[in-house]
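Data's thin. Show one?
=====
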Amino acid sequence: MPCMESPSTLKQMRKVPRELARVKRSAELQLKTRLVGAANQADHELPDWLIADLRSNHAGEAGAVMIYRGILAVSKSSEVRAFALRHLETEQYHLQRITEAMPPNTETHLLGLWKIMGWLTGALPSLVGPHAVFATIEAVETFVDHHYQEQIVRLSEDGPFRGLRQLLLECQQDEVAHRDEAASLVVAKIGLLTRGWQWLVGIGSKGAVFIARKI
């Protein structure tokens, strides 16, 4: 008789190609970021407005990491926890890449505050349930998509900061994928309370970016 694999074994085997592809992509992006980042910083001093943008990006990615840590600290849903773990890995990588692109000692002085606010943004909807979590991430990533786009259009494709522009494009693509995944998981109709929370998340994100650019 032919040897039959158990369902759990087959499931694990199906995961292997996806994991290998993810590891390969991560390594390629790391190498690319370091090369273009080194070239940009070696040849061109970053203007103040661009440092301010990077400072806001750094604060945002640090906050995003904490959003998913807040979710994982509170949520008991296996679906939500798997979602948060996947996205946490991506946000940690974004944070690393943005940090490498920044000049030393230029991060926001309020980084601790943004981390606390990020944690609460993940933890509070987790108390309500999966629907609230996914609606929150959809709102956050909708804002982040627009935030990155505003920066990308200011950087020329063949200008001195084209490597940084590529970095922002790659981060934006990941955030859009997160937004779309979260939106697809919001199975129930979004009510007025959830809409209000999404609005608050968007306004809070906008205010945080404004302040992080300044200090």
In short: The chain has one domain: 7-214. The chain has a mean pLDDT of 86.
